[in-house]
Amino acid sequence: MNQNPAIGHNSVPKMTARNVNVFYGQKQAIKDVSIDVTSEHVTAFIGPSGCGKSTFLRCLNRMNDTVDGARVEGRIELDAQDIYAPAMDVVQLRARVGMVFQKPNPFPKSIYENVAYGPRIHGLARAKADMDNIVESALRRAGLWDEVKDRLGESGTAMSGGQQQRLCIARAIAVDPEVILMDEPCSALDPIATARIEELIDELRGRYAIVIVTHNMQQAARVSQKTAFFHLGTLVEYDDTSAIFTNPKATRTKDYITGRYG
Ligand SMILES: Nc1ncnc2c1ncn2[C@@H]1O[C@H](COP(=O)(O)OP(=O)(O)OP(=O)(O)O)[C@@H](O)[C@H]1O
Ligand SMILES: [Mg+2]
């Protein structure tokens, strides 16, 4: 039997990480992290500022490749394929494992073009009508269609923050990803826009493997079914969200969720 509760916990993992270490120059930011991520559940990453949540999240679609001085060790697989293998096409990988950032970052292009951009570079639409369908469907799934259908030509950057974040989610799902990574997607949003994104995450659950980093404990409890608690670069505890919040095994987890530090 596997002794690590972060492994073999879920049915068929979509992504697996084994013994992952991440260094920035000499400094180690992630220490021997192993975890499985499944498509059935939303997984929340929680932990105090600087504990490595964003660093580890970025390993899952090789975004750390773009960070100067960052080095990743260990093995990370998507559908049992090593994503750090030389043969892995990183552009393709990032389409399969999409990312939504803390600060909404729409392109300075029209709403339509923001969503059409990915499908176009991946050759997903042959005719204009196909692209129109992809754009509409992504905007519908992101809960934005009714608000923008009459102004698709307007700039994505001219929308409200909450709308921009939903546009970024639409942009991520337009290429039909398998995994969506969200790094504090609501931290720049008001409570109403936050609630809308949380509803959306719930609607997308099961269709994509979703990993969300959040500092908001209530949010983690509301949107996730699995929670991973990180501290000082290590994965301290990974369990059902209900267990983490009602009956954590590690003292450090308990201290964090009860607000003793962080
Ligand atoms: N580009 C970088 N270069 C050097 N060190 C970095 C870099 N990015 C992060 N670090 C360091 O790695 C550690 C983990 O940072 P990371 O951003 O992953 O933490 P986090 O848990 O996401 O924090 P927060 O909750 O504040 O977003 C920190 O000590 C941080 O200073
Ligand atoms: Mg972070």
From TrEMBL:
Pfam families: ABC_tran. Keywords: ATP-binding, Cell membrane, Membrane, Nucleotide-binding, Phosphate transport, Translocase, Transport. InterPro entries: AAA+_ATPase, ABC_transporter-like_ATP-bd, ABC_transporter-like_CS, P-loop_NTPase, PstB-like. This is Phosphate ABC transporter ATP-binding protein. It comes from the Bacteria. GO terms for cellular component: plasma membrane. GO terms for biological process: phosphate ion transmembrane transport. The keyword ATP-binding applies. Part of the ABC transporter complex PstSACB involved in phosphate import. Responsible for energy coupling to the transport system. One of its GO terms (molecular function) is ATP hydrolysis activity. Coiled coil: none annotated. Residues 15-257 form the ABC transporter domain.
